[in-house]
Amino acid sequence: MRRKIQILYEDEYLLIVNKPPHILVQPPPLKTTLTDIINREYKKGSQLDFLPCHRLDKETSGAIIYAKTKECASRIMQMFKQRKIKKTYIGFVQGVLSPPRGRISFSLYGKKASTSYKVLKQYKDFCIVEIKPLTGRKNQIRLHFKRMGHPLVGESKFSFRRDFPLKFKRVCLHAWKLEFNHPFLRKMIKIQVGLWPDLRNFLKKYLLKRD
C-alpha cells in the first residue's frame, strides 16, 4: 500500500515533507525508505531524484528537506554545516527536568556537541520539551538527554534503565520547526508542523489516566 506523504513546502528547488515515524530516510539494502516514496510519488518526467539534505532517525517524525538538484542539495547541506538552518524539535522527556531550561554540552564521537532545551509543560512523569540542537552529531538529542538521566519517552536503544513508568512504541521526538534563508530565492522559509497523531494520542491518553 502506498503512503501519502504530506508536503509542507515546495518550489523549483526544494521539497519539504512531514516524515512519518518508523521509516528510514536513507536505505540499507532492500528496504523501502522515505526517499523511495518521495521519488515515486512526486518525481516529474525526467527530473532527477529528490535528494535528502539531512537525516532524521527512523523513529523520528516531522519536517525534512529534499533538494531537486545536486547543486541545491550541496548548498543546503553546507548551510547545515554552517549552522544557518535552525532546527527545533519537540520531545517527551522522562521525569522532571531541572533546571527547566538550559544547555547540554557533552562531546559525542570525539567532537563537541551542544543542545539547548526549554520545558514547555511539566507533568508528574514526563515533560514536553522544546529542543534545539546547536551542533549536528548523530543521535545527539537522544544521547544528550540520556546523559542528563532523563531519556526520551520510548527510548530503548540509548536508555540505561528500564524503570521509568512511561512506555511507548517509538522515541517521542518530532522535528517541529525549520527556519532558513532560501539559498536561491533569497527569502526566509519558516516551517512548523504539528505533532504526529501517535504523539497526540499518547498525550491524550496520559491526561485521561491522570484525571
CATH architecture descriptor name of the domain at 6-85 and 178-194: 2-Layer Sandwich
State mean pLDDT (0 to 100 scale): 91
C-alpha termini separation: 39 Å
Helices and strands, in order, run as: EEHEEHEEEEHEEH
* Helix count from the secondary structure assignment: 4
Q: Based on Cα principal axes, name the global outline.
A: globular
Labels describing this entry:
Pseudouridine synthase, 10-stranded mixed sheet, 4 helices, alpha+beta, globular, single chain, 211 residues
Question: How does this structure look, described?
Answer:
This protein has 211 residues and is of the alpha+beta class. It has a domain at 6-85 and 178-194: Pseudouridine synthase, CATH 3.30.2350.10. The chain is built from 4 helices and 10 strands. The chain has helices at residues 34-42, 70-81, 140-147, 197-210; strands spanning 6-10, 14-19, 51-52, 61-67, 86-94, 101-105, 114-122, 126-133, 173-181, 188-192. Strands 1, 2, 3, 4, 5, 6, 7, 8, 9 and 10 form a 10-stranded mixed β-sheet that branches.
